[in-house]
């Protein structure tokens, strides 16, 4: 299997690049943000619980997102691999993901970290808010909090995988195609 994590701050372009990676490498997408938004749209109990955290730009509790990821992995036996997008976001989630994959005798092969300066992240979130309808992209306080959460809680995930030599950083500035080409080169160098 080829199990990848696409990592980066909010607004780094993970969603856009995920679509291209999935199409090229035939992986199953696991975006916890998308899964949570679909729970909210379906007005499930989990969605109702998650909405308050998301609207405020805070992380949804670890056990909620880990449970969702566990379900997708369990329900997709025989896939070529998974692309994790927006997950793991805490060290506890990373450890839980490793344990889940170990149950299937699998592990994370590579973390691709998109590097984008902070001013550009804010500009992209403002831009995305115009088309996505995402309320968490539209509010400047929420944008700042999400970047703060990334620095305080999520960056530790990169250090966690770095200790196993699994992190590679890619410049997230430039055209969508150029960034995708740089990501593809990294994936191919490591695994294809
Ligand atoms: P995203 O679409 O990945 O930017 O996620 C949007 C929001 O969903 C985040 O600001 C969090 O509130 C929540 N969320 C998504 N993924 C996670 C995760 N792995 N852990 C905790 N909260 C998450």
Order of helices and strands: EHEHHHEHEHHHEH
Q: Work out the radius of gyration.
A: 16 Å
Instruction: List the total number of helices.
Output: 9
Q: Give the N-terminus to C-terminus distance in angstroms.
A: 11 Å
Shape: globular
Major sheet: 5 strands, parallel
The total count of strands amounts to 5
Low-confidence stretches: none
Work out the strand percent: 5-15%
The amount of helix comes to 55-70%
List the bound ligands.
adenosine monophosphate
Question: Strand pairing plus helix content: what structural class?
Answer: alpha/beta
Mean pLDDT: 96
Strand order of the largest sheet: 2-3-1-4-5
Walk me through the structure.
- α2 packs across α3 and α4 packs parallel to α5.
- This protein is 60% helix and 12% strand.
- 34% of the residues are buried.
- It is of the alpha/beta class and 192 residues long.
- It has nine helices and five strands, in the order βαβαααβαβαααβα.
- The longest helix is centred in the C-terminal third of the chain and has 23 residues.
- It starts with a strand and ends with a helix.
- The site of adenosine monophosphate has 17 residues, from α2 and α3.
Write the layout of secondary structure elements.
Layout: E1 4-7, H1 14-25, E2 28-31, H2 32-41, H3 45-55, H4 62-74, E3 82-85, H5 91-103, E4 110-115, H6 118-132, H7 135-138, H8 140-162, E5 167-171, H9 176-190
Parallel strand pairs: 1-3, 1-4, 2-3, 4-5
Bound molecules: adenosine monophosphate.
Adenosine monophosphate is lined by residues 10, 32-33, 36, 53-54, 57-60, 65, 86-87, 89, 93, 136, 146.
